[in-house]
Structure formats: structure tokens, C-alpha cells
């Protein structure tokens, strides 16, 4: 299926839901890794807590642990036991730094503005954690943010996941719940990876952007439009 300009996905449409993935879709790359690494630069002694990380990574690569379990373990090793005010301060600083260092794709932000101007309800749907994703959503003007929850023990971070990892089929469940909360609204969805295809294929309009060759091939076989924001005319 040929690429379809982002403008064509917005023009002439009545107000609907515009659902954006974060990492690799709105941003150039992953956000969790720089969030954790940035904290380690401020607390270098915590690097010693990562001694089990290679084993956890190997277990994931060999299929002995899922992506959500690996995510929780990394978060616990880096941030576990830290206070809510301390993590909130770092999350605020990290969020503010994203725009300053050009972390967002300009063409993606332009598409987001077109949806806002069209009166669409903007939803950020991300597998990254709620330690900082809701802040990103608020900074970009999203009406709603859905992301992976992280558990707290009082005012100290536990680090285990309090929700399912918002990835793959879990995004399908989230999209179904969105439709139930906003009946009758047409959904336009954007993602960047093969794991986004299950929910993209359920949207009335969907665009896979910035994707690998394999993900593009899978998208075309499913009838999901493939394109790159950078190639769209104004």
C-alpha cells in the first residue's frame, strides 16, 4: 500500500481520536534508556547495582523473561528505593531536556498540531513508564496519556510494574477501552514498530512510520499504511 500524506489523514475528518506511540514515533529513539542512564550519571554509585543486568538481559534474549519483566528489573536496579520527590525532580528535568536537545521529530510534532487544530482528542499510548511519560504528554498538549505503571511503596519507588506492559496486544486492549470511553469517534493511530501493528490494524486510519524493513513488510500485508513523516509535504 503506498504512503499516504499525513495531511490526508487529517483533512476532511470530523473530530476523532488521534493515538500516538512515543518512542521512535514522536521521538527519534527510545526514552527509557536515557532516563535511566541520566539518573546514573547523577548517582554513579548506583552503577554497582547493575551487576545482575547482564544475566537478566541474557534471560530475555533467550526467552526466559518477557520485556515487561526486564523493564521492571532495570528500573528497580537503577531507581528502586529512591524517594518520590527525588525521582519527580529528575523526571521534570528529563522531560524539559527532551525538546531542548531535539529529541522529538519535527514532522511528527507538525502532524500532532494538525490533529489538535482539527479538534481531535489526542492520546499518547506508550510502553514507557509513568515515571515520566505523563509529563511528556502534558508538555506536548495531549488530552490523555496511557503508559506502563510502576509501583510505589509509600513514598519510595518499588519499581515493579503496577500495570501490564503497554506493548503489543496490551495496546489492543487499551485501544478497545478507548473506543468504549469515546464511542463513535474515528481512530487515527501512529506507531513505528512491528509490536504496534496489532492495534494499528484496528484503527480506521493508521500509519507506520520510521519502521524497519521487516515491520514495513508486515504492515503492508495487514493493509496498514507505511510512510515516513519526513517525506510528507506541507
Mind explaining what this structure looks like?
With 234 residues, the protein is α/β, with parallel strands linked by helices. It has a single domain (6-231), classed as 3-Layer(aba) Sandwich (Rossmann fold). 43% of the residues lie in helices and 18% in strands. The strands form 2 sheets. The protein has a 6-stranded parallel beta sheet with strand order 3-2-1-6-7-8, with helices on both faces. The chain has a two-stranded antiparallel sheet with strand order 4-5. It is globular, with a radius of gyration of 18 Å. Residues 1-13 have low confidence and may be disordered.
CATH superfamily placement: HAD superfamily/HAD-like
> What's the CATH first level?
Alpha Beta
Largest sheet: 6 strands, parallel
DSSP strand content: 15-25%
CATH architecture: 3-Layer(aba) Sandwich
Output the strand order for the largest sheet. 3-2-1-6-7-8
**Mean pLDDT value:** 90
What's the shape?
globular
Helix content: 40-55%
Low-confidence stretches: 1-13
Structural class by sheet pairing and helices: alpha/beta
Instruction: Count up the domains.
Output: 1
N to C succession of SSEs: HEHHHHHEHEEEHEHEHE
Report the radius of gyration as a whole number of Å.
18 Å
Number of strands: 8
In CATH, the topology is named Rossmann fold
Amino acid at each position: 500500500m503506498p504512503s499516504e500524506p499525513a495531511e490526508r489523514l487529517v483533512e476532511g475528518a470530523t473530530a476523532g481520536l488521534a493515538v500516538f506511540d512515543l518512542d521512535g514515533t514522536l521521538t527519534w529513539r527510545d526514552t527509557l534508556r536515557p532516563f535511566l542512564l541520566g539518573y546514573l550519571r547523577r548517582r554513579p554509585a548506583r552503577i554497582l547495582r547493575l551487576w545482575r543486568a547482564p544475566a537478566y538481559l541474557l534471560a530475555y534474549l533467550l526467552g526466559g523473561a518477557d520485556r515487561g519483566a526486564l523493564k521492571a528489573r532495570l528500573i528497580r536496579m537503577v531507581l528502586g528505593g529512591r524517594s518520590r520527590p527525588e525521582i519527580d525532580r529528575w523526571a521534570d528535568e528529563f522531560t524539559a531536556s527532551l525538546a531542548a536537545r531535539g529529541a522529538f521529530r519535527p514532522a511528527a510534532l507538525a502532524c500532532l498540531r494538525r490533529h489538535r487544530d482539527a479538534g481531535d482528542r489526542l492520546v499518547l499510548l506508550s510502553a514507557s513508564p509513568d515515571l515520566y511519560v505523563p509529563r511528556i504528554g502534558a508538555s506536548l498538549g495531549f488530552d490523555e496519556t496511557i503508559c506502563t505503571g510502576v509501583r510505589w511503596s509509600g513514598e519510595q519507588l518499588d519499581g515493579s510494574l503496577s500495570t501490564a506492559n503497554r506493548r503489543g496486544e496490551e495496546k489492543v486492549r487499551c485501544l478497545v477501552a478507548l473506543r468504549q470511553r469515546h464511542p463513535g469517534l474515528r481512530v487515527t493511530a501512529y506507531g513505528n514498530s512491528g509490536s504496534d501493528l496489532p492495534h494499528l490494524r484496528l484503527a480506521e486510519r493508521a500509519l507506520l512510520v520510521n519502521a524497519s524493513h521487516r515491520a514495513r513488510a508486515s504492515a503492508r500485508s495487514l493493509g496498514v499504511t507505511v510512510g515516513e513523516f519526513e517525506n510528507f509535504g506541507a
